[in-house]
Structure formats: structure tokens, C-alpha cells
Amino acid sequence: MKQTDIIRRPLITEKTSIQREDGKTIVFEVASSANKVQIKRAIEQLLGAKVAAVRTAIAHGKIKRQGRFAGQRPDWKKAYVTLREGEKMPEFLEGA
58 — phi, psi (to 5°)? Predict the structure, then answer.
């Protein structure tokens, strides 16, 4: 799996913005099949920042209805990436 396939996009929400300001935590949407080691390597190669820890969580898709028909959105995985002390936040997340 390529590094760009592992990291899908950064998650920018109110909660993740607070985490980014308080410490060195960045949150990404990642491939469901990716493990913590693959996520760590992808972040270090793509962003050039050293990673201290990676925590992952699976967000289950919501049940959505269209009249009498019910469907489900797909499940997806997110990764909370903590940078090492002294590492700077990547530029694309500074102004967000």
C-alpha cells in the first residue's frame, strides 16, 4: 500500500482544532486496513515530522433512510497522531 493511500485527509473539526492548539496532536482519516506502524511511517515520510505515538479509532457509519429504504454509510478509520517534542506542526495545518 502506498503512503498516499494510507493517509486520506486531515480531519479539521472543532475538537481536532482544540487538540492541535493544546498539544502536538493531528487527526487524519486513514485507510481502514492500515495499522499504526504503517500510519507512523506514512506521516514521517509525507510530512517530515517525527511521530511519538499513534492512536486509532473506527467510526461506524450512520444508518440513513430514504423513505422506507434504509442504508448504511461505510465505516471509516481515524488516527490521532502525536508529534515528538520540538517538532513543528506542518504548514498546511497552521492557518486552518
Answer: -100, 125
